[in-house]
């Protein structure tokens, strides 16, 4: 089964062709990082405009890389949300146009399901499982009894972890995107600032990063007022140690409680080297799945793979009234 995936939820325009949910024949991506870097973050209007410029060429590139014809495609899978609504609509309408032109079935996929199913490309997903979803807009702990069974057990009460990384990077004076820059400096420093570990209530699986972010801001501000210098490497190491300790400990605690077979780490922050190292170092015996870096950030291969498994599970497709949603509940969308 050949699935063509389309992803445009933020600032990557991507089209991919995947065979049987496993073999990635192409994964064409146009990133806008260099465009938005000067603004210190993604500007929605600019992002959607650039999707319009790129989307036709990315479709062509994906088909050429895969060496397949449009007529060979069996299913079109497209991100329907959540994300920037203007960006989503560009990818959705391009996917609908392709489906209409070549008379192909179309399927809307939740962006976060895509991140989780990026792991299926290189790993065999085993259930029950716990998924830690960490990105610029989301931090969630999800229990999965089976394919496309999502129970959100914990989530951030304020900032997403990727958002916290970007804000801390800005305080230190690091470039956008902040996550990779903080991760790089963290490996050159030590946890000398001993920032707080925010666990909330003893039995809570929720997260909070606003207090940690404020602690970094206050530390930098107070040092500036006293005329003292901050060691960026040590501050990054201290921040990353605090974040990864809480994420990993809560994930392992939930995995033990649920008696799962596998832990899935997904989302853009799953590319973080420090988080990976802590998971592997402190692993009490779980099978841990983390995608290759090329599948951690937004890409259409993950949408194609998720679309394949979604179709296998529900045997349903959408019609051309399919719409995009800036906010979209993962549990409700796939509620059986």
Q: What does this molecule look like?
A:
It is a single chain. By secondary structure, the protein is α/β, with parallel strands linked by helices. It has two domains: 2-116 and 296-333, ATPase, nucleotide binding domain (Nucleotidyltransferase, domain 5), CATH 3.30.420.40; 125-290, ATPase, nucleotide binding domain (Nucleotidyltransferase, domain 5, 2-Layer Sandwich), CATH 3.30.420.40. The protein is built from twelve helices and ten strands. It has helices at residues 33-37, 44-66, 85-102, 111-117, 161-172, 178-186, 210-225, 232-258, 273-282, 293-296, 300-314, 330-333, and strands spanning 2-7, 12-19, 23-31, 75-81, 106-110, 129-134, 139-144, 151-155, 262-266, 287-289. Strands 3-2-1-4-5 form a five-stranded mixed β-sheet, sandwiched between helices. The longest helix is centred in the last third of the chain and has 27 residues, at 232-258. The radius of gyration is 20 Å and the shape is globular. The relative contact order is 0.19.
């Amino acid at each position: 089964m050949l699935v063509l995936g389309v992803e445009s939820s933020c600032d990557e325009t991507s089209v991919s062709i995947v065979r049987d949910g496993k073999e990635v024949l192409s994964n064409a991506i146009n990133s806008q990082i260099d465009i938005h870097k000067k603004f210190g973050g993604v500007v929605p209007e600019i992002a959607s405009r650039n999707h319009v410029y790129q989307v036709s060429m990315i479709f062509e590139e994906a088909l050429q890389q895969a060496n397949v014809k449009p007529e060979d495609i069996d299913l079109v899978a497209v991100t329907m949300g959540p994300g920037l609504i203007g960006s989503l609509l560009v990818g959705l309408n391009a996917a609908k146009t392709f489906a209409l032109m070549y008379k192909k079935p179309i399927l809307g996929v939740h962006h976060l399901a895509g991140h989780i199913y990026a792991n299926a490309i290189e790993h065999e997903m085993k259930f029950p499982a716990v998924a830690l979803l960490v990105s610029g807009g989301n931090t969630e702990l999800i229990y999965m009894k089976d394919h496309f069974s999502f129970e959100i057990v914990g989530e951030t009460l304020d900032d997403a972890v990727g958002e916290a990384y970007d804000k801390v990077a800005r305080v230190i004076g690091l470039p956008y995107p902040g996550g990779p820059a903080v991760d790089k400096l963290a490996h050159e420093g030590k946890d000398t600032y001993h920032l707080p570990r925010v666990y909330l209530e003893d039995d809570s699986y929720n997260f909070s990063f606003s207090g940690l972010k404020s602690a970094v801001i206050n530390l930098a501000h107070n040092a500036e007022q006293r005329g003292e210098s901050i060691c960026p490497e040590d501050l990054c190491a201290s921040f990353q140690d605090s974040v990864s300790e809480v994420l990993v400990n809560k994930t392992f605690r939930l995995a033990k409680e649920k008696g799962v077979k596998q832990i899935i780490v997904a989302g853009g922050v799953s590319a973080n080297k420090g988080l990976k190292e802590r998971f592997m170092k402190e692993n009490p015996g779980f099978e841990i799945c983390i995608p290759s870096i090329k599948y951690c950030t937004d890409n259409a291969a993950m949408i194609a793979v998720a679309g394949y498994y979604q179709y296998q599970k529900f045997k349903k497709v959408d019609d051309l009234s399919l719409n995009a949603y800036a906010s979209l509940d993962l549990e409700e969308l796939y509620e059986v």
